[in-house]
Design brief:
This protein has 403 residues and is α/β, with parallel strands linked by helices. It is elongated, with a radius of gyration of 24 Å. Helix 2 crosses helix 3 and helix 8 packs antiparallel against helix 9. It contains 11 helices and 20 strands.
Length: 403
Amino acid sequence: MRRIFTLLIAFLLPVSVFATVCRLPNLHGFEDARARAEAILPPKTNDISKLAIYVERDPSLGLYFQSNFVSEGAENVTKIGGEASLTDLEWAAQNLVWTEQPDFIQRQEVQDAIRQLNRVYIDKSVFDEDGLSSLNLEGISDFTIIDREARVSTAGITINRDRPPPLLAERIAGCCLNGRPIGKGIMLAQALTELKSSPKDTRIISLVSDSATIATAKEVGLEGKALMNMADRSAADLQKVFEGQSGKQVVVLGHVESGNFVVRDAGGSEKSRVAISHLRKLASDNNVLLIEVGCNTASVGDTVAGLQVGVTTRFNTVEATRKLSKAIDATNMSEFLQRLADQDLKVVVESEAIENIIRYRANYFISGEFGSPDISVAEVSITPRSSGILGSWTPNWMRRMFN
């Protein structure tokens, strides 16, 4: 007998949402999506601990969910589609598994399954050009991004911010270097590789006053290289540093509290504080690439605006200082950030920030301020600025990436 389950998705939702829950071989209108999901998902299972979910978005039909799970009494894996307002991954997962309203223990079993590392596969179509999505990924810290056009997949991470929505990023190099918005990872990775780095183009501002970190900086040779200890300096002094570093990268190392870099003495009393938002504005105003090496700096702010390079984890400043001593001698920005990043210090890069620093530097290749171009002249086109003073050098690959 032909059976298709059209259920009210109301197990746990605060509002009623209708969607088609299908346990037949195909869900009408989503035949191609089913084939794509089957090519990606692990083998069929009736073991909830092995549950995996694929999600993609059709412009007309909305989100499509498919699992590798065969529910009790069914012969095929479960599929859900046909309702644009169904945007909660967990509620979809509950309906992909259960045929009746789950109890607390059953619900928890599904939650635990989808929160395992990389058990959720999300097609790039789910995200807009800013890397945002209506899909609610609450509780999912790691997922896999599928780019069906490029036929590649990358790891994705969710970074909770001061206010929703969370920041979504994708792995672009090594274990722990991530970029956003989602969908520009391949070109961003190339841009970072071609963006030159050297000690003379790097300044490290230390806003750390603890003796262990200061001693480590001396031990690894950072103090006489690029490090500027400014724990006792004013905001005006910081501003002067940024004003003199246009086109270069400035690393700020410090302890973060409520969106501020805060310096405290040995007794815990506050000596100074500077808002991360203020540093971001200084960087933007002076064409500086700001690398914020403070705990969870990527989570600061209620929008993605302003972030250039930040950190998504908590870490020890002594270890971060050791990593910076290795990163400082890198020849390109990808190498620099990969030497800095690890499982305890995950880094996220905004593509717009890299775009801006490339364009600024390109304008000064004529003067030789930043040495030879990061790419060959054959790859560069010149479009005069309205001022007529300087040409704007735009690599062809950069125009593909950012335009």
